[in-house]
């Protein structure tokens, strides 16, 4: 009798050159929107892929980059059901990331698809030998019901990745007006997210001084949480105003002075002066009450007269997201045996063995 074992088919060294070193995977509605907007910019990302249970999420992406996880229409999805449904698509996900040295896994957490699949895609990318970085967009404060799934998924994503950047939707929507519709809130949060991530990952152009992949990874691949604080200003003292706003947004998520490293990215037009750049970068440590922090910076001139400052800071021991996941808080580093937590949709339980 022959038994054929099919093991994972990953060959990073063979494919890296052909396929490019950096891949970004957008998962679920929010992740796909953000990654597809990023794909229109000139970034240090060579390839893009998208995964969702909802084919409506793929309207703005190349069909060949989309992986649809088929789901029954009459079933309310949960993260564990989505993981079960995705079991049959593991190889497609593997093919999408295989060969990349760095894989960015981007999802809004709190719904079923992004929360269920972001940790799965990160694990697959890790198995393929990639340095995996999760980018987790966390729910608005008013989306109370989403917090639990978001908290649990963030814990799993952190366990499956070398580093995770968490960014809060409330931080991102700060520029929206009071009477914005939900669609407008999401749009403006997406614009801010794309500006921030785009400026952290921007390619070098003449006259620019981008952050670059090494500084980005050097900041994110640290122990503890990495958080992204964002703020913009068009005021006369915009450098000082925007850097202070970005630190305030971080302060709402964690104790700012716990950060051990930060990278500041400034996005503006060519009217941004060297003095303004210097001011923003040099003020960061004192505003965070952390003069010993290791600070790097980059400038991206693809923006407007309004300066957007993004502060990616890492090394936080705890954040407000710990409260979203009470079980994780109790368990700490202890591991719960929940690897079997993969459900089948109703009707298919009959396929499981019975006594
Ligand atoms: N920034 C931003 N956040 C969004 C957007 N759409 C949803 N979110 C947030 O992303 C999180 C997850 O929502 P979705 O992306 O809609 O959920 P999903 O992963 O598609 O999961 P299901 O649709 O439930 O299967 C929540 O925190 C939402 O607040 C968006 O367009 N932009
Ligand atoms: Mg969705």
Report on this structure.
The chain is an alpha/beta fold and about 350 residues long. It has a domain at about 15-160: 3-Layer(aba) Sandwich (Rossmann fold). It is built from 12 helices and 10 strands. The protein has helices at about 10-20, 30-40, 80-85, 90-95, 115-125, 145-160, 170, 180-200, 215-220, 240-250, 275-285, 325-330, and strands at about 20-25, 45-50, 65-70, 100-110, 130-140, 165-170, 225-235, 260-265, 295-300, 305-315. A 10-stranded mixed sheet has the order 3-2-1-4-5-6-7-10-8-9, sandwiched between helices. β1, α2 (about 30-40) and β2 form a beta-alpha-beta unit. α2 (about 30-40) packs across α5 (about 115-125), α3 (about 80-85) crosses α5 and α5 packs parallel to α6 (about 145-160). The chain is globular, with a radius of gyration of 20 Å. Mean pLDDT is about 85; it is low at about 1-20. Guanosine-5'-triphosphate (GTP) binds near residues 33, 114, 137 and 172.
């Amino acid at each position: 009798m022959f038994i054929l074992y099919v093991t994972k088919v990953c060959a990073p060294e063979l494919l890296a050159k052909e396929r490019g070193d950096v891949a970004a995977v957008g998962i679920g509605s929010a992740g796909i929107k953000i990654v597809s907007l990023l794909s229109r910019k000139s970034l240090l990302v060579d390839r893009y892929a998208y995964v969702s249970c909802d084919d409506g999420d793929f309207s703005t992406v190349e069909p060949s980059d989309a992986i649809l996880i088929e789901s029954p229409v009459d079933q309310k999805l949960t993260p564990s059901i989505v993981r079960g449904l995705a079991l049959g698509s593991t190889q497609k996900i593997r093919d999408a990331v295989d060969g990349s040295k760095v894989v960015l896994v981007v999802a809004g957490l709190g719904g079923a698809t992004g929360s269920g699949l972001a940790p799965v895609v990160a694990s697959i990318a890790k198995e393929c030998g990639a340095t995996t970085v999760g980018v987790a967009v966390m729910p608005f404060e008013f989306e109370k019901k989403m917090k639990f799934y978001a908290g649990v998924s963030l814990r799993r994503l952190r366990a499956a990745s070398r580093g995770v950047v968490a960014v809060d939707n409330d931080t991102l929507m700060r520029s929206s007006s009071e009477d914005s519709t939900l669609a407008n809130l999401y749009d403006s949060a997406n614009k801010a997210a794309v500006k921030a991530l785009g400026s952290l990952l921007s390619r070098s152009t003449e006259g620019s001084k981008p952050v670059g992949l090494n500084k980005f990874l050097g900041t994110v691949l640290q122990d503890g949480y990495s958080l992204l604080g964002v703020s913009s200003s068009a005021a006369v003292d915009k450098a000082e105003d925007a850097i202070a706003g970005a630190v305030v947004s971080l302060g709402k998520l964690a104790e700012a002075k716990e950060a051990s490293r930060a990278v500041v990215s400034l996005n503006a037009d060519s009217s941004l002066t060297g003095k303004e750049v210097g001011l923003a970068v040099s003020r960061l440590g004192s505003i965070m009450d952390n003069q010993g922090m290791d600070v790097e910076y980059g400038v991206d001139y693809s923006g407007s007269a309004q300066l957007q400052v993004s502060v990616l800071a890492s090394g936080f021991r705890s954040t407000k997201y710990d409260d979203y996941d009470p079980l994780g808080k109790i368990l700490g580093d202890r591991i719960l045996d929940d690897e079997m937590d993969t459900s089948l949709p109703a009707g298919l339980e009959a396929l499981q063995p019975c006594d």
